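User: I'm putting together a teaching handout on how sequence relates to shape, and I'd like one worked example. Could you take 18S rRNA (guanine-N(7))-methyltransferase from Herpetotheres cachinnans, show the sequence you're using, and then write out its predicted structure as tokens right after it?

Assistant: Happy to. First the sequence, then the structure tokens directly below it.
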Amino acid sequence: SSRVAEIQSQMSERAVELLGLPEDRPCLLLDVGCGSGLSGDYISDEGHYWIGMDISPAMLDVAVEREVEGDLLLADMGHGIPFRPGMFDGCISISAVQWLCNADKKSHSPPKRLYRFFSTLYTALARGSRAVLQLYPENSEQLELITAQAMRAGFTGGMVVDYPNSAKAKKFFLCLFVGASGTLPKGLGTECADGEEIHQAKFTNERTRFRNTKGKSVKKSRDWILEKKERRRRQGKEVRADTKYTGRKRRPRF
């Protein structure tokens, strides 16, 4: 659909931006999980060359029908990156890496498949280049598994989170460096209203409740409501002014 294509294009634009490619020359990029080639279209528009790999023959057929400019390869990224060392100036991946955490067959081991992917990707990238992998982790354990295997393979870097305070716009980009460690880019939407920046985004798979000293939940209390209203103000939303009646319980009606 047009909406999916628009989102794919936006995430591809952000991923290429995080690569920090030189502006004076075209680069050769690897697109892991290229699908129908929507990400590759943006790479071509930016004047770069690309090779895409995907596990789905049907998606690659769509890319061929669309006559994308990049070369296409049918391959499972869990089996490794089948290219010679130092071949690519960078790598992007949009919503693909998290699938390596699933064991679709009895022979599949997510940690081993992730390590195989990252270790061969590290080899295929030129020294000083980057890999930017946009993903949708299901929980904090999955996120830790992915990052741990990437670091084990030799990468440095970390997670860049765009709009960490938004439930819909939040996006995770694993930004990896080959060789010398660079400065991790800042995520979009990480500046608060008072000018302070959020340097870390906490990733949890369950809600954290406010609790008082007795261990009882104080959700809907005055402090909880004031904190929530302040958070919404930082997000640019219209919020009613605080008064002495904020958080006060109403009398029951008869």
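A couple of points you could highlight for students: The domain at 1-178 is CATH 3.40.50.150 (Rossmann fold). The two ends are 53 Å apart (CA to CA).
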